[in-house]
Amino acid sequence: MRQPVVLISLESPHSFWRLSSEHERALSAAFPGLKFRRATEEAVPHQLADAHVYFGWRFAPSWLFAAPHLKWIASPSAGTDHLPVAEAHSVGVALTRSYGFHGRPMAEHAMGLVLGFSRGLFTSQRVQRNRAWWKDDLAEEFFDLAGATMTIVGCGSVGRHLTQAARAFGMNVIGVRRTPPAASEGGITWVHTTAVHQAVSIADVVVNLLPATPATDRYFDHNLFSACKPRSLFLNLGRSATVDHSALLASLDTGHLRGAALDVFDPKPLPARHPLRLHPRVVLTPKSSVFCRAYMNEAVAFFADNLHRYLSGQPLNGLAEAPATRSPLVGG
Amino acid sequence: MRQPVVLISLESPHSFWRLSSEHERALSAAFPGLKFRRATEEAVPHQLADAHVYFGWRFAPSWLFAAPHLKWIASPSAGTDHLPVAEAHSVGVALTRSYGFHGRPMAEHAMGLVLGFSRGLFTSQRVQRNRAWWKDDLAEEFFDLAGATMTIVGCGSVGRHLTQAARAFGMNVIGVRRTPPAASEGGITWVHTTAVHQAVSIADVVVNLLPATPATDRYFDHNLFSACKPRSLFLNLGRSATVDHSALLASLDTGHLRGAALDVFDPKPLPARHPLRLHPRVVLTPKSSVFCRAYMNEAVAFFADNLHRYLSGQPLNGLAEAPATRSPLVGG
C-alpha cells in the first residue's frame, strides 16, 4: 500500500509564517508512515491528485475537484472565512482552523492599543513635534486601567488570553458569547449575546473578536455603538465585516467614542484618503495583531497533534462547522 | 495647650493632584487632636510660623527660616530632588517622600510604551496617513514580549510593580540595584550595580527608574548605551539628569537602539526643534507616567499612616536620606 500523502503549502514573505526545512524534517520524523510533500501555491492544484491531507494557508474552492482522495484541509489560521467551508463540507472533506496560540500576540497587541489610548501615548506621539507642552491635555484624557472594565465580544480562546493580560492590570472583564460558561470562569463575567447592549454600556474598553459569519455581518452597527459607554474605546481585532464603519466614524465624530483601533478593515489597504486613515483618534494596524516569531512552530505543533488524532480516528480539533449551524459568537 | 498645626498646600491644575474638601474632612476626623490648615503656595511662608507638620508639593529652602516649630515636611511625590533635603536635614527637620502608589500607573505607562514599540503601534500611527501598506515593515520590526528580557535600572518599589506587569506578558526581568535582595525575590533576577553593563547587554528593553542624585548624574552615558543589546529599546521614567541625551541620540542614529521613550527631559518643555522631539523613533510623554485618578487618595492615605507614626513616635516611612549617604540605585 502506498503511503498516505500530506500536501503542504505554507509560503509567506515573512519567515515566521513559512514552513522551514526543520519543521518538515520534524513532521517526517514524527510520522514515518506518511509522505510529506511541499508545493508552491500555484502548484497545489496539480499536486492534489493523490493527497489525503492538505496543510496550507489558502484553498480555492475549485481545488476540491482536483482532490479525489482528500479527507482533510488543515489551516494554520484562526479564522475560516477565507476558506471553502461549505464546499468542503458538502463533499465530505473536513476543514480545521487552528487555535490556542493566536491569543498571546493578540493580547499583547490589544493591550498595547488600549494603553496607547489610556496613557495618552498616541496623543503624545502625534503632538510632540508641534505642541510646546501637552500635559494638561493628557491630564484630561488619560484613564486608569485598574478598576476599568473591558468587554470582549466574541470571547473565545483569544479572549481568554486577553483577559489574563487585562486582569494583570486590575481590569474587570466581561465576556460576551452565544454559549457562555455557567460561572465566572477564567476571571471573566460571562454574559449571553442577548445582553450585549448592557455589556458594552458599562465598558471603558470594548474589544471585538467576532469571526465573520452571516450572523455577525455589521454586528457593530449604529445601535450597538450608541449603547456603548460615553468616552469608551473600541478595538476591532476580529473581522472587518462585523463592523459598520460609517456608524463607527459617526460615533467617533460626535465624541461618543474616545477612539478606535482597527487591525482589520476593508478594502485592505484602505484608499489613500479614507476617513479612517485620517481620523486623529483612529489607529490602524495592518492585520499585524497575530504577528508572532513562534507562529509556525505553534501552528505545526497544533497540526501534528491533530494529525495524530486523524490517524487514530479521534475527532479533529478546530473543525469548522457548516455555515448554517455555525456559532456566531466564538471569537478567533 | 494649643493643638499642633498641620499646614497643607496641595494645589494643582489637575483634580487628581489636589486635596479635596473630603480629604481634609477625613484627616480632621481621623486626627481630632490636630489642627489642619490649608494655604496656597504663595501663602505658605506666612503660615508656617506655628506649623509643626507641612504636607505639600513644594517647599522652598528659605521657608525653613519662617518655620521655627516645624518638625516634618511630607511630600506626596516619589522623588525628593526638587526638595531641600540637605537644608532640612541640617536644621533637624524630617523630610519624607511617598511610595507604593506610583508603581501602578507607571507600570501601565511603561508597558504601553514597550508595546507601542514591540507591536509597531507607533510606526503604524505615524505612517497610516501616507503609506499604502506597511505590513512588511512591521513584520521586520515587531518583537514578542513573551520570552524577552527587561532590565530595570534603579529597581525599587516602582520596579516591582512594573515587574508584575512585564511577567504577565511572559517577560524575564532583571533588577539592578545597589542593594539587591539575596534571592530572585518578586520574580526578579537581582544584580548589583557593578554588573549593570552585563545586565543591559542581554536586555531587549531597558527601563531607567534611577532617582537624580550626584551619583546618578549622566549614569546612562555613551559607555552604558554601547553596552546595550543591539536593537534594544530604552525607556526613561526616572529623572532626566541620569541620561546623557547626546549619547542617547547617537545610539539611536546608528541604529544600535531600536527606539526610546522619555517621560522626563530637560528643559521641560524641550525647545521647538530639539532633536528628541523630531526623532522618528523617540516618543515623548510630558511627565505623565504618574498620572492616576486615585493619586491624592493614595497620597493622603500614605500621609495619614505616617502621621500616626509621627504622633506615636515611630520612625517615619519614606525618610529622605541626607545627600552624602543617599543610595543612588533605589528607583522612585
Please characterize this protein's 3D structure.
The structure is a homodimer of 332-residue chains. Chain A is of the alpha/beta class and 332 residues long. Chain A has two domains: 5-101 and 293-325, NAD(P)-binding Rossmann-like Domain (Rossmann fold); 103-284, NAD(P)-binding Rossmann-like Domain (Rossmann fold, 3-Layer(aba) Sandwich), CATH 3.40.50. Helices cover 31% and strands 17% of the residues of chain A. Chain A is built from twelve helices and twelve strands. The first copy, chain A, has helices spanning 21-30, 44-47, 85-90, 103-118, 121-127, 135-141, 157-168, 196-201, 222-227, 245-253, 275-278, 295-311, and strands spanning 5-9, 35-38, 51-56, 72-74, 94-96, 149-153, 172-177, 188-192, 205-208, 232-236, 257-262, 282-284. Chain A has a seven-stranded parallel β-sheet with strand order 8-7-6-9-10-11-12. In chain A, strands 2-1-3-4-5 form a five-stranded parallel β-sheet. The first copy, chain A, is elongated. At the A-B interface, helix 4, helix 5, helix 6 and helix 7 of A face helix 4, helix 5, helix 6 and helix 7 of B.
Overall SS class of chain A: alpha/beta
Are there runs of chain A of 5+ residues with pLDDT below 50, and where? 325-332
Largest interface: A-B, 56 and 56 residues
Largest sheet of chain A: 7 strands, parallel
Mean pLDDT of chain A: 95
| End-to-end gap of chain A | 39 Å
**Overall 3D geometry of chain A?**
elongated
Overall radius of gyration of chain A: 22 Å
N to C succession of SSEs of chain A: EHEHEEHEHHHEHEEHEHEHEHEH
Lateral arrangement of strands in the main beta sheet of chain A: 8-7-6-9-10-11-12
CATH hierarchy, class of the largest domain in chain A? Alpha Beta
* Architecture (CATH level 2) name of the largest domain in chain A: 3-Layer(aba) Sandwich
Oligomeric description of these chains: homodimer
> Count the strands of chain A?
12
According to CATH, what is the topology of the largest domain in chain A?
Rossmann fold
Strand portion of chain A, in percent? Answer: 15-25%
Overall helicity of chain A: 25-40%
| CATH homology group of the largest domain in chain A | NAD(P)-binding Rossmann-like Domain
Counting structural domains of chain A, the number is: 2
Put simply, the count of helices of chain A is 12
